[in-house]
Design brief:
The protein is an alpha+beta fold. Helices cover 29% and strands 24% of the residues.
Amino acid sequence: MTNPPVIDPVSLEVVRNALTAIAEEMSMVVMRAARSPLLREAGDHSSALTDADGYLVAQGADVPVHLGVLSFTVREFLARVGKDRLAPGDVWIVNLPDVGGNHLPDVKLIRPVFRDGVLYAFSISLAHWADVGGAVPGSYFAGARDAWAEGLRMPPTRLVAGDVMDEEKLALILANVRGPEERKGDILAQIAATTVAARRLDELAASHGTAWMTAAFDAIHTRAERQMREAIRAIPNGTYMGEDWMDDDGHGGAPVPIRVTVTIQDDTAIFDFSASADAVPGPINTTKFIAGAAAFYAMKALYGPDIQPSGGCYRPLSVITRPGSIADAPADRPVVGGNHETCQRLADAIFHALVPVAAPLLSAGGPTTAGLVIFGTRTDQGLATFYEVHPGGEGARIDRDGMASTRVHLANVMNTPAEVIEAEYPITVEYQKLRQGSGGAGRHKGGEGIIRAYRMRGAETTVTTMFERAVVPAYGLEGGEPGKPFEARIIHADGSEQALRGKQNVQIGRGDLVIVTSCGGGGYGAPKQGG
């Protein structure tokens, strides 16, 4: 048996950066080639590379919750699709949450990468489609009580074979989503991204060979594991408990608890979410993969920001969820909002738990919500979906005030420019401004949220909200005060007003004005007396 190649430190650093550059190039391809503003403007997509067994080796500078989930996607894919079924030129499509996923709109395209008949890597492009079918435009049905109301469910399906599109499968997909031409353009952009990655990997493999590439992947895992273990050793051994709350059960009920117990033992960390609430009726449930993403994010952000994200990072971490809970929901429960709402509360619970040992490293509560509003409209080209996130005020830190109008933690999606909105949809952005005074008081104050107003130019528009921090505001830390909560309302053309709940679908008309008022961040430290 031939001994595996030895990867020296210099070569490891070169290949590590080369792999990261490949993943980032994938994301640039999607942004330049995609059809929908959600991808090409807002950047709601992510890219990753894994080894032949599906363990992450590199990722782009993309959306943390996507990237955390992509650490599991290919492994779960391989558990259902054996390696013997894969061939050069394949691209598989999947969006089922239980296949290492999160929610149906986040569609993953997976390409196995071969050289000389040997499978040695995968490239994966995840993109949030503006619509995957379901009961309402945008596929966020606030009234959902089961998973089928949320849209088209795609198990692992070979969409491309031998680099040739399966037109029948593509037609089946496009017949079940709104805006089929836009979806087709986005699919082609994702395929292009995986193709570019395979080409770049092949250039590396041509220089070094697949055995060397495999050894380099193993070396990345080994170094990341060592670095993560060293980071955990900096935390005092002990058991720490944290709790935060969802605003409601997705259908307007009482707040729902998210609880975690963090156990640090030498160079390992255990995150146990078992005490969190049972799965709820509404669409804010989530998967165990999201819980894993939240735990990884919290550890990397606090203790290992320079660690290469990889399968090795996860080896010292154990994540426990209770099947049937909101953090590990049954496969038939709706989950669309859990992807970007509950994931943030899982992270917030971890940060609450670590306050006794990490307060100087932490921010107070911030806009840990997508602040999502979706407009379903009709244009000259047919049905169109405008999906928009709204930033809020960052929580203050030990040494400074919070920033205004930003995204934090597992979120990293940009807003869509007003000019693009007005050119693509029958909507006018009337104004956008900071929400003065929305940050919580403290020795350092929380950042300000924003106010953005949309005027409808079309005769009929569906509005969907999916946001948190409307009932349970962004928390203060170390005596700081909470920020002001998230709000949204409609001023109808006849002058009447209507408050919008955090999860709601409503129909509005021409001339109506939708005003989104995002939350402020929490303050840090007790406010100065008389200040």
